Hints:
Blueprint: H1 3-26, H2 33-50, E1 55-61, E2 64-68, H3 71-79, E3 84-87
Antiparallel strand pairs: 1-2, 1-3
Helix pairs in contact: 1-2
Amino acid sequence: MNEEEKQALIIRAEQLINHAEEARDETPFGLSEDVESELALIKIALSAMTAEPVAWRHNNGPFGKIATCSENAAKRWEREGFDISPLYTTPPAPEGP
């Protein structure tokens, strides 16, 4: 998926979340259990698509695998020709209904 497709999915997920939450607010008994589950899945997907790395590592240095929390260090490693991998936290699942 390219960046343009990713951004389109992010926008669509945000629209679906807003629409479902507005419908929940306007519906006397809220959303069905199935729709609430789908809403939770969309929120998890959006969280995963918008996650930012918290650290970076490279596997080809003289000391083996090395990690850093510094984006500047990761950029320097990349300029020096190291193969850099971003590392992410696992996004928390949104709270249920």
